[in-house]
Design brief:
Elements: H1 15-23, H2 28-41, H3 46-53, H4 57-70, H5 88-99, H6 114-125, H7 131-141, H8 157-182
Length: 183
Amino acid sequence: MGTSKLTITHPEVSHASLDAYLSKRAPHRVKLRIAILQGVMEREPIDHLSRRRKMSRQGIYNLVYRINREGLHGLEDHHLGRPGKLTAKLADDLKETLTYSPMDQGYEQMRWDNPLVRRYLKERHGIEIGRAQLVNWLNLIGTPVKLARKKYERTHFKERDHLADSREDIRNRQRRRFIARAA
């Protein structure tokens, strides 16, 4: 097989710029794209690149075309979906708020938990989100708060006492049978 005729023509893209971009914290798919571009710059055959990197040949051609058009900005994902509700301002506010006690914010609890943070977001910012989404947001902002686990209701005292009484009755019956057998 011969070398590829596919070339990168954008002046911003070079081995040094790709290495510098790679040293940043980037998602795995961006690192994969950089590895493919380095292969293209080294004139590796497209078949080898597509097999080794598990990307279609057309995907590689599209990537090189996008890089030639946009430069290093073409490495990033271009999502056209709905923008997220977590803005930078909201993230900063939430991170600062969670560093203080909930009692400082006017709540009766001593510690932040998932329902309380969701209630805070609804009351102060008008945002309703689910438990899992809140955990994702807290991971994104890097908050040191560890939220309490979901709590399950405990058995009521009367039911618990009834269960204890029934266990004691069973033990007494077993003792009487043992004594009757021994006699």
